[in-house]
Request: fold
Amino acid sequence: MEHNNPFKFGALALDEAFTDREDELAELGAAMRNGQDVLVYAPRRYGKSSLVLAAAQQAVADGILVGYCDLLRITTKERFAAALAKTIHRDIDSATGQALERAAALFRNLRIRPTMELDPDDASLSFSFRGTRRKADIDETVEALLELLGRLAEERKRRVVMIFDEFQEIVELDSHYPKLLRAVFQAQPDVGHVYLGSQRHVLDRIFNDENEPFWRSAKALELGTISPAKFAPFVRERFAATDKGIDDDALARLLETTGGHPYATQELAYEVWQGLPEGFVAHTADVEAALEKVLRSEHNHLERLWEDAAPVQRRLLLALANEPTATPYAADYRAAHDLPASSTLQSARVALEREETIGRSVDGVVSIAEPFFAEWIKREQRGPSLSEQLGS
Reply:
């Protein structure tokens, strides 16, 4: 029997591809059932969307109405209103009947009524809001759409949970929108909210500044890397289930290289599995060969990150590639890695964190967050040998 590669990266990891996170999944599921607002923070490609959608699957099975809105793809208030309308109609409204008739009745009291188009292939509706004369019109429409979530929860007598992916983007739409949203949400006891985000400096300002409307309004759930003790069984079982194997040394090398980063581990394991014939066991040499392939495929992206970094940022990246630390400003660490004064170093660190190139783990260690970047930096600093340059 021919098997498909059991490791997934890039796309959402659901069902069998979903790795560990049992504790976080249980915690988030309980919050959804209880209507508790939650902030889920993690750098990019840490699996926060996969976690939240896995929890959403369970919530829907429990009879909760769950809506999902990704703010990263939204560039205007009109598009935000259209995304809310689509989510409410598709995910929250449980009425029966023709789609156009249902939507017309659902949105008849909006300040601006949406233009609706029916897809003939799947009968789904798309919405657009155009022709606004006053700024207040679209703001009032957005407010009314958000209020509609609470009204539907009350009418349907069911819990509603609204998921906002990349929530920090809300301030890019309008710096006053957090105040608008919070005012609506406070009056909706039957609506829970899950906020996903990856830009810590913006999220800290939204949720941890006592002068901001969302201050201490949500339970914080921060995702870190997955420990080798939990990741190792997952990787080993995926190999075994597809008539392949991986020995202990190879598995240790794989997890050491990725540091338990969900995306990176799946990507490297994918390449190890792909290069291994059926019925064989992967050894350390197979992991090294797979790593070479991954680094070649990621080279242009990683090289661009390095080239875009300022000189001081590069020095910090080099230090963290060789030695992650909880105390990057300590005098002995700066001396060991030829780093500048703390004030200069802090500016470099903040800039790299904003780009999500580096990050601080749950236990306080600052390291390179971008998958495979640390390995790439160390190899680039060593430089290729003459035989490698000659291809021999």
